[in-house]
Specification:
This protein is mainly α. It has 8 helices and 5 strands; from the N terminus they run αβαββββαααααα.
Amino acid sequence: MANKRFLLYFIFLAVGFIFLALDMDVKTNLDYPAPYNNTENVIGEFQYYNIASTYGAKCTYKLIDTSDSKDNGEHNTTVSDTTAASSGSSQAKVIDKVFFDNIHIDIFNDFIGFLLIFIACIGLRKCNKIFSLSAAGAFCGILLHILLKALPFFINGLALCNFSMILGVAYLGSIILTTFLFTRGLFSMCPDVCCRDERKWGKITWFITMVLQILLTFVFWIGSDFDALKSLGYIIEGFLVLDIVVFFMILKRVYTYLEKSYKNTV
C-alpha cells in the first residue's frame, strides 16, 4: 500500500511540474465585465504586453512622426494612413489602443499543477520537513493564481497592468521556490554515495529548467507583439518540458531509494 501511495505522489509531482511549465490557452466566448480602460499617458506597449501575456488582448496601431521637426507630435497617423505618409518623413509603428480579448482558459492550468504538487508534498511531509515548506509554496502559488485571474473583474487600466506585473513576478517566484523545495526534499531522501551522480545531475537539470522558465516568461511577455519571439517561446517551452522529463528520468534511477525512504518513515 505504501508503495502505491508513494508512486501516486511521485506521479503527482511529475504531472504538476509539467502543468506549471506548459501553457496552452483556448479562447472562450465569455467577455470580461468591462472593456479595457486605456491610460493615455502610458505607452501602449507596456499596457498591451502586461494584459496580453496574462489575460489575452488585442490592439490597434498608429504611425508616429519621429523626424526632428518641432511639430512632429502633431502628425500622428493611424496604420490606414500609411500610404499617405510622405517619403521624406521618418515614422515608427507603435501600439495605439488596447482591448481585452475574450477570456482565455489554459488547458494545462497552473492551478491543477500547484494543487497536485501540494497534495504530493502534504503526503511526503513525514519524510522531510522540506516538503511542508514546498506545500506552503504551492499553496501560495494557488492563491496568487486565483488572484491574478480575478484582477480584471475588480480593477482596470494602469492599476491592472501594475498589479498583474508585480503579482506575476511573485507568481514566478512561487514556481521557482516550490520546485526547488520539493527537489531538495526528494534528493534528501536518497543521501547514499551511490546516488551522488543522480543528485548532481538532478540539481543541474532543475537549474536549467528554472533558467528556461524565467526566459520563457520574458519571451512571452515581449512576444505578445512579435510573432517571431512568440514562435521562439514555443520552442523554449518544448525544451522546458523535455528538461522536466529528463529531470524525472534521473529521479527514476533512484526511485528504489526514494521508495525505501518513504516506507521507513511511514
